[in-house]
Amino acid sequence: MTPELLAHYGLDREHDRLRTGRGRLELWRTQEVLRAALPGAPARVLDVGGGTGVHAEWLAADGYEVELIDLIPLHVERAARLAGITARQGDARHLPVPDESVDAVLLLGPLYHLSDRADRVRALAEAVRVVRPGGLVAAATINRSAAVHDMIHLELYLRPEMRKVALSALVDGDLRHAHEGFTAYMHDPDDVPAEFADAGLPGATRHGLEGAFWLYRDINGWLDDPERRALVLDAQRRLESVPSLLGVSGHMLTLARKAS
Length: 260
Description:
By secondary structure, the chain is of the alpha/beta class.
C-alpha cells in the first residue's frame, strides 16, 4: 500500500465510484456474474478488499452472512455502518480467518494493488485456505489496456505525462502516478488463469464485465433508462466470455471452485 494509494483512498471517492455514473455498469455486471455462481443464501461470504461495502451491502440484502476485510481504516469504518455486515482491517495475503470456514471468497480489489505475482498468488492461496471444499473464489482484475481506453474517454490522454503513464502500463502492467494518485497492477487477461492455477484453482472461467460499452459517450443515458439498460446488460452477458473481447472490458471477473 503505497503513500500515493493511501492518499487516493483517503479522498473517500471509492464509496460512490460504483454507485454513480458509468461505474454502475461494473457493479451490475458483477452482481449478475456472482449471483449466478454463489451458493444460496444464507451462505457465508468473505469480501476481501471490500472497500466501503458496495458489494457487501447487496450481498447482505440478498440474505448472505457477510464479513468484509480491508486494509484502509476509513473503508472499514464506513462498511461497519451497513446493516448485516461485519467489517475489520486485514491483508488479503494473511487473512485473519480460520481454514475452510466460509462458503465463498471475493477479491474484488486486492489483485489490483499487488504488483508482484507472488503476492497475487499468495492472496488467491489464502482464499483457497479459508473457503470450504467446493466453495467459490472470485477475483476481479483490471485489464492491461484499460488505462489507454479510459484516458482517451476522459481526454486525459491529451496530456503527455498521462499518455506516458498509460503506454508504460501496456508494457509491464504497472500503472504508476496516474490520475488522482491511483496506482495499480493491470493484467493481461490470459495471465489470470495461470495465477489461479498456481494458487490451487485450476479450471477458472473469465467474464468481461463492461465490454466496450463503458467507453460509449452516452453510456450514462443508456444506464439511466431501464429499457435501454436491460439491453446493454443482455448484450454484454452474451459477449462476456468471448476470448477476443475479454481485454476490451475495463475489468474482468475470474471464478473457480476449490476441489471437493
